[in-house]
């Protein structure tokens, strides 16, 4: 058939790819993205480390006034002084009234703090007060408070005559577990298919990236088609290639350009991440290590990675072809946003289905709706790659999802093959969905 002939798609690919890479808009946006990604990790690292102190650095606190209002007697804080950060601090029993000491700390002793130990209804409380201004910051108080609380717990146990072994038993966590038994009395094991908060964050982040890449690549494809229609370049291209070859070449060219952007941005992000680790003090803690748990990819293997890449690529091809078809329905750039309404609805709708499935996975685990989201071609490219990488989906289900996505792509290409020649030469008002369906039946 004439419309199914794809000969010449390579020529369209070369032409579109070169024109895209030479485009000032593409270059400027790419440079801006590179700069944003390059500075993002160090900036995040600096923000996270802002106001924080090194736990081993000497504390700005010089003296601690101890206001002991309990019946425990004089409390020994010598263990606190064994830590490098606090070895210079002196603990002094408060001899004056509270107001006098607190006023002196506020006015002249801003490197001192006031520790009040109170006992109410069998409960103990430790309260540290510092000057409103001065070198002592909230983080300094927090670090000292942790050390003092630990020492106070040890002192309290020793005072009560409890041994370390008895204390370990006393503070041992108590876990409860409810088991279901079958008729023979054997326990029924129910697999936990829910995901953790960190896994949800990773799936959501990958979903958002895929959605943005889809929108960016697909919008560029639609814009290219409408621009060439309005400048009549499309008519020149159609003298040497078939309409279907035109859309295939443009889809692959734009996806290649966008994927090159994404790969280079990921590489810059990893370099930026290493720089952030150096800025954070050389302790090896970078932004990715901080926010992404090391065991999140416990079931990662080469098969999962291949399936993940295939799903993302096929999803991008599907949405890019849909956007190319939408771009062909309009004749002027001013109408492009209106023409892309159906594409945007499908893209955002698929992403929202994926987000809903991720929320259900975190709340209760796998169910019928999550399985539907994994299989549905509009949502599977968004939710399934992340679920594959964290090991929350079976290989047969992934294979079924890939098969359905391939079927939808073939059906979409057949639909495009029937009507694209008429659409690509159309100049006039935007063609609506009903007209597209009618056109596909008559061509």
Give a description of the structure.
61% of the residues lie in helices and 7% in strands. The strands form 2 sheets. It has a 4-stranded mixed beta sheet, with helices on both faces. The protein has a two-stranded antiparallel sheet with strand order 5-6. The chain has 443 residues and is α/β, with parallel strands linked by helices. Strand 5 (180-181) and strand 6 (187-188) form a beta hairpin. It has 2 domains: 9-49 and 194-442, no CATH class; 63-163, D-Maltodextrin-Binding Protein, domain 2. It contains 16 helices and 6 strands.
Keywords for this entry:
443 residues; alpha/beta; D-Maltodextrin-Binding Protein, domain 2; 4-stranded mixed sheet; two-stranded antiparallel ribbon; 61% helix; 7% strand; elongated
Quick summary:
The chain has 443 residues and is of the alpha/beta class.
Indicate the topology:
Blueprint: H1 9-22, H2 24-49, E1 63-68, E2 90-93, H3 98-107, E3 112-120, E4 123-129, H4 138-159, H5 164-170, E5 180-181, E6 187-188, H6 197-230, H7 233-237, H8 243-279, H9 287-291, H10 302-328, H11 336-339, H12 341-363, H13 368-375, H14 380-389, H15 395-424, H16 433-442
Parallel strand pairs: 1-2, 1-3
Antiparallel strand pairs: 3-4, 5-6
